[in-house]
TrEMBL record:
Highest taxon listed in the record's lineage: Eukaryota
Name the UniProt record assigns to this protein: Uncharacterized protein
């Protein structure tokens, strides 16, 4: 019975990590898009 609880905890931790990674990559993509946008704008000037 304890093993089921244990694996549930692991699943929750894994889900939490995956969500954190997802939001982190979303933020990084947003930053990268902004950087690229700024770079292309400054190169057009």
């Amino acid at each position: 019975h304890g093993m089921i609880l244990f694996s549930n905890q692991i699943l929750e931790i894994v889900n939490f990590c995956m969500n954190s990674l997802r939001s982190a990559t979303r933020a990084v993509k947003k930053d990268a898009a902004l950087l690229l946008d700024n770079a292309s704008r400054s190169s057009l000037k």
